[in-house]
Design goal:
single chain, alpha+beta, 5 strands, 10% strand
């Protein structure tokens, strides 16, 4: 995905290079040979897509060719990718290009457990695309290249990162199931130990509060295991954690089916 995105954007920048160079006029006192030499420098140095690959530790790898995406260069896991045509142009002309872009793809994960985070909010992610230009063909070409690359890798679980996904799961799944299980557990407890019969209400409230804490932790754990943006070649323990979540979900579903059928 990253190689294809880089290749598509590079074609757009190469086209801008030819448009820019074709509009140049030979300065007074320049020989044709010198003028052609400077045009070559501009083409090869000013119109490049600069890439920054960042690891979770903050270490950066820079490159201006597609070779930067070779397996031996990409950090594992990869935290983010930044691409822009500003850096190369600025290095030659000491000014920003008329038509420019910058795209950041954030492959980071939310914290597994954070009491300060409002879980009803959408998952925070620093990915963004900035395009500045007067050439609408340039703007649309960059935008379509980035959006098409992201659509190709859009995970099916993206809905869990949307606003209020926590609340929907809470009211439609966690609370009904929790009330059912708490009622059943407390009834069994008071039947076996009648001394707790006078504390039913307190036990019920305690159980529901505990349920909310467990559900919050589980929801944030799921968002960590299934992040908003996924780089398929990242080597981490996500596959193992997804197996754990699958086992938990299957266990809960099996328990519900058992209770309904017995």
């Amino acid at each position: 995905m990253l190689r294809r995105l880089y290749a598509n954007i590079s074609k757009v920048i190469e086209k801008k290079a030819e448009e820019f160079i074709s509009g140049l006029k030979i300065p007074e006192g320049y020989t044709q040979e010198k003028f052609e030499s400077e045009k070559t420098v501009i083409r090869e140095r000013a119109f490049k897509v600069t890439v920054t690959l960042t690891s979770p530790t903050g270490a950066n790898i820079y490159g201006e060719t597609i070779d930067v995406f070779a397996a031996e260069f990409i950090p594992s896991p990869l935290a983010s990718v930044y691409m822009t045509n500003n850096t190369a142009f600025m290095g030659v002309f000491k000014a920003n290009p008329q038509d420019s872009f910058a795209v950041l793809l954030d492959f980071g994960k939310p914290p597994v457990f954070d009491w300060a985070f409002i879980v009803s909010n959408p998952t925070a992610n620093n990915s963004n695309l900035t395009i500045n230009g007067l050439d609408m063909t340039f703007v649309r070409s960059i935008e379509s290249s980035v959006m098409n690359a992201l659509q190709d890798r859009r995970p099916f679980w993206k809905f869990i990162h949307a606003p209020f996904s926590y609340d929907i799961g809470l009211w439609l799944l966690a609370m009904p199931y929790g009330i059912f299980e708490c009622t059943k557990a407390i009834a069994a407890l008071t039947k076996s130990f009648p001394v707790f019969d006078d504390y039913k209400l307190g036990l019920y409230i305690y159980a529901l509060v505990l349920l909310l804490a467990v559900y919050r932790f589980f929801f944030q754990y799921v968002k960590w295991v299934f992040p908003l943006n996924v780089y398929a070649d990242n080597q981490d323990s996500s596959a193992l954690h997804r197996s754990v979540i699958a086992a938990i979900v299957l266990g809960l579903v099996g328990n519900i089916i058992y209770d309904l059928l017995r």
